[in-house]
Amino acid sequence: MPQRSFTFANEVEKIHAGLYQQMFDKLEGSKESYSYYVCPVCGYTSEKEAPETCPVCGAKGKIFKKVD
């Protein structure tokens, strides 16, 4: 179990780093606003809409939590 949790966390943090970089790059530019969807199992975060299934842990997209 600890290995699986670490694997999920590692993969999710790679996604988070990319999202943070995108937000940083847009600070001076576009003021576009949209929702994010977060997997309640592993923390994977998706922009604009939830995926059909989580690419990290396989959870169904319908259980993702919307964050405005």
Which structural class do the helices and strands define? alpha+beta
Q: In percent, how helical is the residue content?
A: 25-40%
> What does the overall shape look like?
flat
Largest sheet: 3 strands, antiparallel
State mean pLDDT (0 to 100 scale): 87
Number of strands: 3
**SSE order, one letter for each helix or strand:** HEEE
- Strand % is 5-15%
Rg on CA atoms, Å? 13 Å
Determine the number of helices (DSSP H or I, runs of at least 4 residues): 1
Reconstruct the topology from this structure.
Elements: H1 2-26, E1 36-38, E2 45-47, E3 65-67
Antiparallel strand pairs: 1-2, 1-3
Describe it.
Helices cover 37% and strands 13% of the residues. The chain has 68 residues and is of the alpha+beta class. Strands 2-1-3 form a 3-stranded antiparallel sheet. It starts with a helix and ends with a strand.
Q: Which features would summarize this protein structure in a list?
A:
68 residues, alpha+beta, 3-stranded antiparallel sheet, 1 helix, 3 strands, 37% helix, flat
Quick recap:
The protein has 68 residues and is an alpha+beta fold. The chain has one helix at 2-26; strands at 36-38, 45-47, 65-67.
